[in-house]
Amino acid sequence: MFGRRSGEDIVVGLDIGTSKICVVVAEKNENGEIKIIGSGIRPSHGLRKGLVVNVESTVESIIEAVADAEKMSKTEIHSVYASITGSHIKSINSRGSTAITSRDGVVTDSDIKRVIDKACEISLPAGKDVIHSLPQEYLLDGQDGIKNPKGMVGNQLDVNVYIIAGSVASERNIVKAIANAGFEVEGLVVQSLASSMVALKQEERDSGVLLIDMGGGTTDIIVFIDGLVRHSEVISIGGDHVTNDISIGLRVSIPIAERIKRKHACALKSMVGRDEEFFVEGAIGKDKIRMSRKKLAEIVEMRMEEAFGIIKKRVERYEGLLSSGVVLTGGCCNLPGVQELAKSRLKLAVKIGKPLEVSGLAEILDSPVSTTCVGLVKFGFIYGSELKYFSFSPINLLKKVFSYGSSLLRRKIFYKKEG
Q1: Average pLDDT of the residues in 262-287
Q2: Is 26's pLDDT higher than 90?
Q3: What was the pLDDT predicted at 417?
Q4: What are the chain's domains?
């Protein structure tokens, strides 16, 4: 059907969110530059707070979004890097130690991999598994502050590792949905880490920065100091909670509340005039209903202020260390006033983050909604072959188990229906 297949030179990102499924296809040119050549975005059905609650509905949304991306990029997609989020994701610091095995005492890649594996040999709560193992610093015979020990000489290698773990069941449900849609999973990447790949500049990571990714069902945060991840967390508040508040406060249905949010909402009531109004279609047979935009802004601000209040408490230990302030990304960034509210509540400089240092489709690169998905493809290009950066253990086992043949048949039926 298509002239090429996804593989080493073409990487596909699949952001499975609570409100949308986003697919991005990217290629790398001879200069090493990443270019977005195709995309697909469809409403998400079957997820709640970032977790799969209906596999069949999720599968259909994935198939539709991927089909759009395949047509645009003229690429046959077989494998993806997928995002994972949810309040089940937790982090912990760990330390590993190993003896250098070579006769001359030179540190090799196998020594580095072994010491990271040792650091990951920790006792996790039942049902949890390592998603990412991020080296913070190495120590060689007690000498600390080493970023890369390869080629150095010593007897004992230690490493401090920042481990991000998640629910095995949640991982399996994501992998199962993707496999049932007809695709293999090259790796699962925590949403905030994926977004940071393209929303943050290196100098921001080095000087200290907080990235906030506000999606439909969750808000993902990640803190970088001295270029390293120091904190990551998922908060169960997102754009869908704002929609629900609007539905209750204005006594309208969820679909109408979502339309109101997208068209009329503002996250800061001081930015809205007291006399500003808008109209909404009433029930069948009734006239349009007049509503106050000021009241709407009060509802939205209350929920958004709650989210930023929680974030402030979570990162207060880094006060004075975030010289680059806050980078805000995700779908909620489209709400007018959200940047100003974040600045006021967090007492830090705030800017809207969009994909950086990537070329291609303007509609993707100009939108904070696509940050995670673009970050996934960059992650795949840079770290795809480096097992030291993240754990594949449950993924490789699962992606071979699910029925790939039946899922391909499902895709063929979809294309026949669409065509």
Answers
A1: 82
A2: yes
A3: 54
A4: 4-87+169-192+357-418 (3.30.420.40), 90-168 (3.30.1490.110), 196-237+303-352 (3.30.420.40), 239-296 (3.90.640.10)
